[in-house]
TrEMBL record:
Pfam family, one: TetR_N
Keywords, comma-separated and alphabetical: DNA-binding, Transcription, Transcription regulation
GO molecular function: DNA-binding transcription factor activity; transcription cis-regulatory region binding
Coiled coil: none
Record protein name field: TetR/AcrR family transcriptional regulator
Highest taxon of the lineage: Bacteria
């Protein structure tokens, strides 16, 4: 085995051990010693790659999320805004459904008491999610299918809140019919609210 695949296998083992410990004992009780023991790696190896527990945990959750639903940084591009928004929401749903509820809720609880973890999660996970609609809306604006003043962060925040609530709180359905309802009755009206405002202003003149 060449050095690079061996290094990748070691990294995979460390990230998997981190996820397992997070789910089993939580962030607060997890230690770098425990991760090293479970992954059969030295602490020096872990610290060469990650500066501390918070960064390691975020990297593990990032990897898990990407493995569950793939990585689509540029977003879908079907040349149809409704279809693209639907695909973005479906991807967000699939990523959430693939997560361990115990892991996610435990991470959120730990963020209240650990400023370093909170900063890492917000910069690496939450801020990235806020950009999930940006490429789709940018292309829609270029095609003339959306106004230029769309707040993509608002769309991401509203979508995340609804999806998170249904997956982890209420347990209500998130099938494709619900996704279509969210696109048609929540996201598209938000996208086109500036169009309606401009039309109203013109009619008042």
């Amino acid at each position: 085995m060449s050095p690079r695949p061996r290094a990748e296998a070691r990294e995979d083992a460390i990230l998997l051990a981190t996820l397992e410990l997070l789910a089993q004992i939580g962030y607060g009780a997890m230690s770098m010693d425990a991760v090293a023991a479970r992954a059969r790696a030295s602490k020096a190896t872990i610290y060469r790659r990650w500066s501390g527990k918070a960064e390691l945990v975020v990297a593990a959750v990032e990897r898990h999320t990407r493995d569950q639903a793939g990585d689509h940084d540029s977003g879908p591009d079907t040349a149809d805004l409704r279809t693209d928004l639907t695909l973005v929401l479906q991807d967000m749903r699939d990523r959430l459904v693939g997560q361990s509820a115990q892991l996610v809720l435990g991470l959120m609880t730990a963020m209240r008491d650990d400023a370093e973890l909170a900063r890492a999660v917000r910069s690496r996970l939450i801020d990235g999610k806020r950009e999930s609609f940006a490429p789709v809306l940018r292309r829609a604006c270029e095609r003339g299918d959306a106004p230029g003043a769309v707040d993509h962060e608002l769309l991401a925040e509203v979508s995340s809140a609804i999806l998170f609530s249904r997956v982890f709180v209420t347990g209500e359905s998130l099938d494709d019919g619900v996704i279509a309802h969210l696109v048609d009755d929540v996201l598209l009206p938000l996208v086109h609210r500036h169009d309606r405002s401009d039309s109203s202003d013109r009619s008042d003149r």
